Structure formats: structure tokens, C-alpha cells
Amino acid sequence: MKKILVTGGAGYIGSHTVVELVEAGYEPIIIDNFSNTEERSLQGIAAILGREVTCHRIDCTDVAALRKVFEQETGIAGVIHFAAYKAVGESVAEPLKYYHNNVGSLVALLQVMEEFKVNKLVFSSSCTVYGIPAELPVTEQTPVQKANSPYGNTKKICEEILTDLATSGSDIHTIALRYFNPIGAHPSAKIGELPLGVPNNLVPFITQTAAGIREQLTIFGNDYDTQDGTCIRDYVHVVDLAKAHVVAIDRLLTDKAENIEFFNVGTGTGNTVLEAVQAFERATGEKLNYKIGPRRPGDVPKIYADVTKATEELGFKTTSTLEEAMKSAWDWQMHLQNTSEQV
Ligand SMILES: NC(=O)c1ccc[n+]([C@@H]2O[C@H](COP(=O)([O-])OP(=O)(O)OC[C@H]3O[C@@H](n4cnc5c(N)ncnc54)[C@H](O)[C@@H]3O)[C@@H](O)[C@H]2O)c1
After folding, report:
1. Which residues form the NAD(P)-binding domain (predicted)?
2. Ligand 1 pocket, 108 CB below 6 A?
3. Does residue 10 line the site of ligand 1, with CB under 6 A?
4. Ligand 1 atom having least distance to the Cα of 61
5. Are the C-beta atoms of 12 and 192 separated by less than 8 Å?
6. Fewest beta carbons less than 10 Å away: which of 30, 92, 113, 167?
């Protein structure tokens, strides 16, 4: 079984990818410093797979610690690099924390990959690199724009670092996946998004509000130029997104990839925030307490992906509906509540 190193593999998207990698016949090795996740994520992975997955508790900005993992885990075939901080608001308040962790971890990882001649990388990028796009849907040719947060800028800078490396003639081949809005949880409800503190993302806020942990959801603005005035996003089920990483690794390992390639990973469909709320209500039968608030500075009014390139070249396809994703997020919320006193 080919070993794939998964940094941030105990996190939200990482944990789902670890499960899909095992199911596709790979041997994932996790690296995580548990700055934004908990032990129960590993327990959830083990419960789904019926066995534990190796996890190294180190920080990815630490070159010496990374080196030790590469020495210990001989024969790593490729790396998927999820480890990063991702809270947009926090990145505005603490930019250096974000540049150090998100850019620093990529540079450290690339140095060690070069040293150990591990040449295949899948990188977690984001549709945030497109800023407020002039045209929709967004293709990979849509111009990248000035980032509107330090977090977004770290993704843009990381893409530039990877492009410079490809141009330099390095042996490292990279696929950068530009995620749209990942939501939902594994159908087993044993892993999911684990927001520590007040959630930054819509769906955990929805599920926590429905569960009575938060009093009310605020939808930021209903006067945008969209069908119901609320912002449009492309909500992609996290299991579908996880599978995109498996096909990206397949492509890198069969040497079909260029030095660097970028792929949008979304559903190709835009839904408003209000439609997402209604999908949650339909899927779960729960009535959500929400209000409309003022616009939030920095929000992109509408964005959704053109996924033709990922479909044709990676063989990526989505299988889950918005309702299914919402139901899975709700089942995960219920699981968290039922098990929280045991953790
Ligand atoms: N969730 C989204 O909406 C979204 C959208 C676009 C891109 N992304 C990107 O996808 C990746 C994964 O996101 P996620 O939603 O799973 O986030 P997450 O916070 O759940 O997972 C990231 C994991 O990385 C770990 N980590 C962070 N810094 C580390 C370091 N220096 N060393 C070791 N471990 C470290 C955290 O503990 C966490 O388990 C990130 O790079 C994120 O920027 C996420």
C-alpha cells in the first residue's frame, strides 16, 4: 500500500480524506499539531475504518520534526498538505500568525520533500484566490485577484511559491485544489467539522443554532443582486471533496500531471445562504431561528465553480445533494451532543 502523508489529517477535510484514502487502498500517515482539532477525530477515523491510522503529533513549521517523520516513514509516495489556520477574521487581527503557519509550513514541508525526494504534492487552496470574480461561474482561467484578508493572501502566496518551484525545474509535481464551500460530514456521523469556540462557517452555526447551543443565526445582508438577496456560494459535500484528493493523488502517481495544475472543486451550482438554510430545514425537519443582519464587510456577493476541468481531467464528480450534506451535518451535531460528556 502506498504511503501518503496527510498534514492536518486530524482536521475537518483531512479526516474525511484519510478515510477515503484507506478505502481507495492507500496507507495514510497523519501529521497534526492538534491546534484546531481534538483526539476524538482520530477515534472517529478508527471507528469508521475498524483500525487506527498512524498519527505524528508535530508542527509542520518545524523542519527538524518533519525530517524525523520522513526518516521514520520510509517510502512516502506523496503528500497532501491541509495543515493551516483558516479563520478569516482572526487572520485580519493576527496576520503574522497566519503567514508564519500557512506559508511557513508549506516552505518547511517542500524543503523536506526535496531532501527526501518525495515529489508529489496535493495542496489545499481556496476559491478565495478569485476575490470578487467579474464573471460566473469561475474557471481556473478566471484571474486571481488581490486577496481581501491575510488568510486569503496566504493561499495566494502559497500558490505562487508552488508555481515558482515548478518553474525552477524542481522534481516536485503539485496539484492545487481550489475548494469552494465544504460542508457536511461523513455518513457514519463519526467524523465531521469540529469548530472549537464560535463557528466561523455557516453550516456549523446552523447546526449549533438548531441544537440550541447558539441562540440565533444572523444572515449577513439580503440586498445583494441575487434571487433572494443573500450571498451565493457553492456548497460541496466534504466526502465528495475528500474523494477529489484521492483522484488528484492517483493522477500524480501515474505521472499524468503537469509540473503544477490547478483545479476548482465545487458542485458547479450556486445556492444562496437562504436556500442553504431552507435545505437544512427540509432535510432535518428542524425550524431554524434566524434573522437578517447588515452586510458583512469583505463578503463576496456571489461565487460558484465551473468544474469542467476537474470533471474531465481528474474524473471528479459530486454525488451528494445540498439536503444530504445538511442532513449529514445535523447527524454529526447530534453525535457530538450525545458523546460530548464521554470525551
Ligand atoms: N473548510 C473550508 O471552508 C476551507 C475552504 C478552502 C480551503 N480550506 C483549506 O483546507 C485546509 C483544511 O481545512 P479544514 O477545514 O479541514 O481545517 P481544520 O482546521 O479542520 O484542519 C486543519 C488541521 O491542521 C492542523 N494544523 C494547523 N496548523 C498546523 C501545523 N503547523 N502543524 C500541524 N498541524 C497543523 C489543525 O490542528 C487541524 O487539525 C486548510 O488549508 C484550509 O485553509 C478550507
Report:
1. 5-327
2. no
3. yes
4. 31
5. yes
6. 167
Catalytic residue among 26, 85, 151, 179: 151
What are the strands of the beta sheet with 55-56, ordered from one edge?
A: 55-56, 27-31, 3-7, 76-81, 120-126, 173-179, 260-265
Q: Are 315 and 173 in contact (CB under 8 A)?
A: no
- DSSP states of 114-156: HHTT--EEEEEEEGGGG-S-SSSSB-TTSPP---SSHHHHHHH
Q: Measure 335 CA to ligand 1 centroid, in angstroms.
A: 22
CA–CA distance, 329 with 192 (Å, rounded to integer): 7
Instruction: Quick: pLDDT tens for 137-185.
Output: 999 999 999 998 999 999 999 999 999 999 999 999 999 999 999 999 9
Q: Which strand (E) or helix (H) includes residue 241?
A: helix 238-253
What domains does the chain contain, in order, with CATH numbers?
3-184+236-267 (3.40.50.720), 202-232+269-304+319-341 (3.90.25.10)
Q: Note whether 84 and 124 are within 8 A (CB).
A: yes
**Using an 8 Å Cβ cutoff, are 265 and 40 in contact?**
no
In 3D space, the residue among 38, 48, 42 whose CA is nearest the CA of residue 29 turns out to be 42
Confidence of residue 342 (pLDDT cuts 50, 70, 90): very low
Judge whether 270 and 136 are in contact, CB under 8 Å: yes
Q: Give the integer Cα–Cα distance in Å for 305 and 142.
A: 10
CA distance 130 to 152: 9
Tens-place pLDDT, residues 208-234: 999 999 999 999 999 999 999 999 999
Determine the Cα–Cα distance for residues 243 and 287; give it in Å rounded to an integer: 32
